[in-house]
Sequence to fold (490 residues):
Amino acid sequence: MTRRALLAAVLFTGLLAPTTAGAHPLGNFTINHLTQVSVGKDAIALRYILDIAEIPTFQARHLSGAQTLSRARAEIARGLEVRVDGRRVTVQAAGIPQLSFPAGQGGLKTTRIELPLRAVAASARRVEIRDRTYAGRLGYTALVAKPGDRTAVRSSVSSQDPTDGLRRYPATVIARPLAQRSATLTVQDGSGTLLAPRYEGSEEVTTRYGTKDGFAAVFEDATKGNTTLLLLLLAALSWGALHALSPGHGKAMVAAYLIGTRGTSRHAIVLGAVVTITHTIGVFALGLITLLAAQYIVPEDLFPWLKLISGLLVVAIGAAVLRSRWHVHRARQAHEVGHRTGADQHSHAHTVQPSAHAAHDHAHAHAHGALGHSHESVHHRHHPPDTITWKGLIGMGASAGLIPCPSALVVLLGAIAQHEIALGLLLIVAFSIGLAGALTALGLLVVHARHVSSRISMPAGLVSVLPAASALVIVALGCALTIQAAPDLL
Fold:
C-alpha cells in the first residue's frame, strides 16, 4: 500500500460515483456477435462483429492478437453457414480485420473484433444465413441486412441495427437480448434497394456503453491510488449493503424465516455470518473455476444450477418450518383438550371449600396429581417451543449467499490480472460483510418488531397463524427461485 497516495480528503460519496470505465451492459460473461449481410450482383459481403465481455476476455489473456483473430476465424468457419439457392458456399476473409481491447470493469479489458468476409454468389435468387457461432454462450446475437450492388432484396431480418455495430445497447436489448441466428433474403436484379421489417426496439432511447458498477469501480480507484484503504473498505461495505437491498437477494426469505421460527437477535446475527462466509467462498470458488477449468466448465452455466440448488434448499427449509409449526399447533390443541377435560374432572374441589380459596391470591400454582400437571390459576400461558434449528439456520444463510455477485468475481479477476490479489480479496470480504450486514439488520428489525407487536393486543387466531403463513411464504419463494432457474437448464 506504500505506493498509494493517502488522500484523506477524498469524500466517501466520491467513491459511489467514480469516473472510470464501465461494466458491459449485457453482463460480464457475455459474448455478443452481429453479422451484417449485403447481397450484390456477384457476391455477398458480410461483416462479422464480435463483442466479448470482461470474463471471457480474461480467460483468453494468454493469447496474442494474432491468436485471438485466428480463434475467431476458426469459430466462424465452423458456425457461420451461407447458402445460395440451396447450395452452401465458402466464406472467405475479404479485408483487414480490426482488433481492439476497450477498457471494461474492474480494470479488466473487453475484446472487439470486426472481420470483413465475402462469399461468391453470382446471380443468386435466394440467400440463407445460419449463425451457429458461440452456441450456448450468453449474449446478443443478430443478423442485419444491408442494400447490395445492382440488386433488389427482400429480407426476413431488419436493416436497422440499434446497437450501432455492438458499440451501444438500447434498453430493450438489455431487457430482452436478441438470439437471432438465421436470415433469408430473396434477390432480384435491381438498383440497390432493400425491403426489410422494422426493428421492434428502434425507437427506444439508446443507452450508452459504459454503465458503471460501483463495487468494481472501487477496485479501480484502489489500483490507481485514488483513496485510502479505510475509505476503500467502507465503500466496499456500502456497495455490499446496497447489493443486498437490490431485488432478489433473500430479504423476504430471511424475514419470513425469522418470523416463522420465532428467531432471536442471536439467530439473526448468525444468519448474517453464514451469508458472509458462503458468499465469499462462492466468489473464490467461481474465480478458481474461471482460472483453472474454463475449458471444461463455462462459468455462466453454473449460475442456473446454483439458483436451482438455492431454490430447492429454501423449499426444504420452508417445508421443515411448516411441519414444525404444524406439530406445535397439534400439541397445543391436544394440551387444551386435556386441560379442559382435567378442569371438568376436578372442578368440585373448588366448590367444596370456597372459603379456603377466598383467603389467598390466585397467583399461586395448583397441583393436580391425576393430571400430572401444574399451572397458574390466573397467569396461565403456554409458549410454543422454539422451532429454529442450527441446521435450518445454516441452510437459510447458505441459500441467501450461495449465488456469487458477478461484480465481486470481476474484482477478483481484476486483482489477479493487476497483481493486487491481497487488496482484491480484502475488498471481496468487505463486500460480503456489507451484504450480510444489511440482511442481519433486516433480521434484527424483524425480531424486534415481533417483540413490539407481542405487546399489542391481537386476535389469537392471527397470532397462531402468522408463523405458519411465514413458512408458506418461504416455500413459495423457494418454488419461485426453482421455477426461475428451470428455463436456463432446459
Notes: Residues 1-21, 201-211, 346-385 have pLDDT under 50 and may be disordered.
